[in-house]
């Protein structure tokens, strides 16, 4: 839990540590067996929106860090979208991709590198898009999420990461 405690005590992040990952009427859920004390949620988008800069880099809504065991963590970068039409994801896929890239390459690799690149920790990173809550047609939803699978991987720490799409509330499971 050391990494979670370090991030909680980071002065620049204290205002952006929250108890829920929610936006646009969508909320990430947690499996009942998860001890919420082992979870840290940072509202990355709020962090950037609070900066006094002319152009704010796009970023994902939440970073969720989950303690698994000594020095091992899962990290989820979560974008929440409450869309009415499946075409939205296709039309905005480059913008969605940019949000993940900026979060990985600026927030994690630049601004807070000393946490996310610390060799004392093993961090498995996943990219999550939770979208389509207002959609009624499950067939259309699954087709649109298949589109995400065809998006190019985002390179992070010499590894390819793919955006995983979920049409209903994403559930963080035990490690």
Short description:
With 175 residues, this protein is of the alpha/beta class. It contains 6 helices and 12 strands.
Helix content: 25-40%
Low-pLDDT parts are none
- The rough form would be described as globular
Q: Please report the number of helical segments.
A: 6
Q: Provide the succession of SSEs.
A: HEEEEEHEEHHHEHEEEE
Q: Beta-sheet strand percentage?
A: 25-35%
Biggest β-sheet description: 6 strands, mixed
What does this protein structure show overall?
The chain is α/β, with parallel strands linked by helices and 175 residues long. The chain is 30% helix and 30% strand. It is built from six helices and twelve strands. It has helices at residues 2-8, 44-49, 87-91, 93-111, 113-116, 138-149, and strands at residues 17-18, 22-23, 26-27, 29-30, 39-42, 62-69, 72-81, 122-131, 154-156, 159-161, 163-166, 171-172.
Which tags fit this structure?
175 residues, alpha/beta, 6-stranded mixed sheet, two-stranded antiparallel ribbon, 6 helices, 30% strand, globular
């Amino acid at each position: 839990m050391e990494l979670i405690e370090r991030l909680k005590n980071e002065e620049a992040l204290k205002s952006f540590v929250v108890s829920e990952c929610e936006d646009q009427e969508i909320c990430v859920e947690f499996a009942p067996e998860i001890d919420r004390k082992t979870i840290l949620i940072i509202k990355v988008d709020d962090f950037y929106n609070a900066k006094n800069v002319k152009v704010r880099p796009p970023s994902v809504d939440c970073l969720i860090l989950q303690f698994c065991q000594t020095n091992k963590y899962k990290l989820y970068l979560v974008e929440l979208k409450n869309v009415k039409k499946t075409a939205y994801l296709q039309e905005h896929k480059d913008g969605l991709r940019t949000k993940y890239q900026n979060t990985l390459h600026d927030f994690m690799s630049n601004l807070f590198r000393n946490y996310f690149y610390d060799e004392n920790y093993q961090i498995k990173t996943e990219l999550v898009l939770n979208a389509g809550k207002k959609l009624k047609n499950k067939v259309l939803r699954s087709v649109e999420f298949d589109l995400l699978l065809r998006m190019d991987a985002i390179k992070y720490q010499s590894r390819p990461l793919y955006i995983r799409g979920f049409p209903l509330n994403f559930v963080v499971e035990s490690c």
